[in-house]
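Q: Can I see a sequence and its folded structure?
A: Here is a first one.
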Amino acid sequence: MEQELEVKILNEDIEKIKKRAIALGAKKIAHEKQINTVISSSSFDLIEEDSYLRIRQLKDLDNNISKNQLTFKKKIQNDTVRENYEYTVEFDHVDRMKEILKNLQFDQMHEGFKERYSYEFQGARLDFDYWDEKTYPYPYMEIEVKNQKDLKEIIELLEISEENISTKSITQLQQELKER
């Protein structure tokens, strides 16, 4: 299990933030293409609100690494950052994993396609995410930190407006778009 503390940066020029981070010493660690499949069941609610089960098919284009991961993210209540416990296992066969899950009555699978550029900066991870138009049409940035003090420093260094910091999940952002 890994504990994750993160926020999303919405409604900002993320290309400008990326350039600023690089100028301040951010080091690129990955360029990925991902297929993310969020899994649920039409028969039962097993997973707590805002927690989720996901298959991620990942191709790291810079490092020529491919992985398939099954992750359960359990949301922990925290008003200032999105805090999760993340349980991840790697596996070889995506179709077989999907069949196992379907046989356990996890019959709803929603795929999204994402391109991600990741950087290490001040001990944090900066992810610049670009989803396919159907999944989420606006690029955003995620900042993942070890503690909240680091987050405050990074936000100041990158000159990010506080009103553009969000703890919403991608599912919540998608729901907001549907409600517009």
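Q: Show me another, different protein.
A: A second, unrelated one:
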Amino acid sequence: MKLFVARHGETDGNRNALACGVFESDLTDLGREQAKTLAERLKQDQEKNQITAIYVSPLKRARDTASYIEKALNLTACIDNRLKEINFGTFEGQYWKTDEFIRIYKNPFVKFPQGESLCEVAHRAYSIIEELKQTGKSNENILFVCHGVLTAMLCTYFKSFSMEELFKLEITNCQLLEFDL
């Protein structure tokens, strides 16, 4: 059983360095092109990848990205709230390159005011993986379409990271990762 994970395409928020956790931000023209390119790549590799199910975050940017993949693979994505991005609380929609934002972000047990901590996001990420491992068939391969921080937390399920390594981990728009379950 394999798990493929893709981050959504570029958004206005990404382009403007805004904290877009649960804050909705539309795909840019580049983001739509990234999504189309990813979908085409997945279609071309479907014989090898054998993806049988797609799970997607309920946030619009992930659903919009997944819509291209659904058409390419002739599959219907299942929305799963556990794949939502971190809730940045009072920082939602704000410029994120501030000392206060980074201080909270680099402390995984600290919640963003009115939001979540990285540990809470990791808990969500781990729970969906554990569920799929228990209920999935060994010959099924699954694709998640989600977000940058959530994807980083998914990565920590499969590999140990120091705090320094974790914060250097960059998940780019429409990057595709592959893990053995």
